[in-house]
Amino acid sequence: MAAAWPELEAAARERRRELALPGAAVAERVAAGGGRLPAALLALPLLQSLELSGCAALRELGPGLAAALPALHTLVLRGNALGPAGLGAGLGGPLPALRLLDLSGNGLEALPAALGGAAEPAGAPEGAPAFPQLRSLNLSGNRLRELGPGLARSAPQLQALLLSGNRLRALPGGLLPPAAGPGGPFPLLSRLEAADNELAELGADIAALPALKSLDVANNRLQELPAALADCPRLKEANFRGNQLKDKRLEKMVNGCQTKAILEYLRAGGRGKGKAEGAREEARKKKREKQQQKDGGDREQDELEEASKLLVKVLHVSENAAPLVVKASPGVKDVRPFIVCCVLKGVNLQPGNALKRFLSTQTKLHEDICEKRTAATIATHDLQSIKGPLTYDVQPPDELKIVPLGRKEIKAKDLLRQLQLEAEEQRKQKKRQNVSGLHKYLQLLDGKDNYPCLVDAEGIVISFPPITNSEKTKIRKDTRDLFLEVTSDTSLQICKDVMDTLILKIAELNRFTMESKEDLGSDNESDALCGPVNLNPSQSIQPTNFPLVVEQVRVVDTDGNLKVLYPSKTDLTTVSSLLTVIR
Hints:
Elements: H1 6-13, E1 18-22, H2 23-32, E2 49-53, H3 65-68, E3 74-76, H4 84-90, E4 100-102, E5 136-138, H5 150-154, E6 160-162, E7 170-171, E8 191-193, E9 201-202, E10 214-216, E11 237-239, H6 248-255, H7 259-267, H8 275-308, E12 310-315, E13 325-328, E14 338-345, H9 354-367, E15 377-382, E16 390-395, E17 401-402, E18 410-411, H10 412-430, E19 451-455, E20 461-464, E21 468-469, E22 481-488, H11 492-516, H12 524-530, E23 548-556, E24 562-566, E25 579-582
Parallel strand pairs: 1-2, 2-3, 3-4, 4-5, 5-6, 6-8, 7-9, 8-10, 10-11, 12-23, 12-25, 13-16, 13-23
Antiparallel strand pairs: 14-22, 14-23, 15-22, 16-19, 17-18, 19-20, 20-21, 23-24
Helix pairs in contact: 9-11
């Protein structure tokens, strides 16, 4: 009899987009299933993120994974016992949406066909890449001795390639195909890590990676560095420590992490070069100057665009001494099942109309991307007024009590009745059918026996989506740290997309506030709305280039199993053209 997989049954029932299976908890069932993933996993076509790490029993994915999960954009299979054959069956076809693939710590001695191994992936038309959207590939901690040119064809959009802790002897080695189209191989590869290998050669063709910004080849067997490194136009960070460099002057620069000095030294030809080498260096210099003239404008434009981007730093749960957790009760799945939360620190709402713009932006998002709250609802809270952990729950209308914004404590059923009476009065006064404010959203709760709510550790309801927040956690002008919440009865991905946009808009507002240099005074409307303002002159004003900090928040079920973590590795990618995320 096949082992039961309640995690997969729950994921199918709740139409989840994300699934994380802890390796230690499922190892016995994986072993009982022949060391492969359960077939029930193939019945989750909506799945976008899958993680199963630390399971020594997992030797193969099983056939048909790629075909069954076409929407998958994140696949983390770290620290298992997967081999190329075991991977090949599951990755035997294209994954058109995959953006992150983590196969680190599996003891791989060769890559599967889908990643440019011995044969082209089955099911893919000739010439079509198996992973056209793949941005990050982690192969660290395996036993790879070489990489073939097929990887460049399989993942042409790769931006980060992590190869540390393998047995590679040359880099790039066979990684670069002799002909890779007009853009060259890996035209977007900006991060290449190959520390702790057996590298004895760093080839001059490393300069064929036009977007390379970060290179790590520490703790290898390199005795010299190629002068061609100086031809990498965007190389900013390089780690060559722990090698056996013959040039002691160069080694001193390496140990001092002086990337710029290293490149200038290599560009100048280093020490002890003969006439022939000097002539070759002069030829390279002329070639560089010609290329720089050609690409100078593009590079300047890239730098301008990068400098103009907004900055956000992600604080991971593992780095947070007191991370906030939201526990979702089973009852929400029949009412409003999806919730995404995070903490945002460092906002400045004190100057001028900053708070008014903040509230106006939230209203516009409700009208636009939230589709008048029918797709999703945003709630923003003053973090200092919240006591965690929080519980996302449901309560009957005659039991749910809240102190709504600008009102006294009231039961949910009485609040809705009050709002309905106000809406009728509004229609009579304005002599039209349309109403404004909260009255527009009353129909969203029609037919519900229970109402969703977010409750703090003191049992106080701080949010009643999609209707209102609590007066207790209201945003004020002296608020610096926010707790952000997005809920939906439609999908988890909509929650994430809305949260991405919300963070971007807040970052834009924060920059505008800093750059406009408004007075700390405020308009009457904001004062009336938000009460007294703390105008402490010693309070520091955030510099314009200081990143906001986004703290990850976990949503778990009543047993503590992870349901969603935001922001995950792939979140905030929808706004990456305008936002630089420091992870």
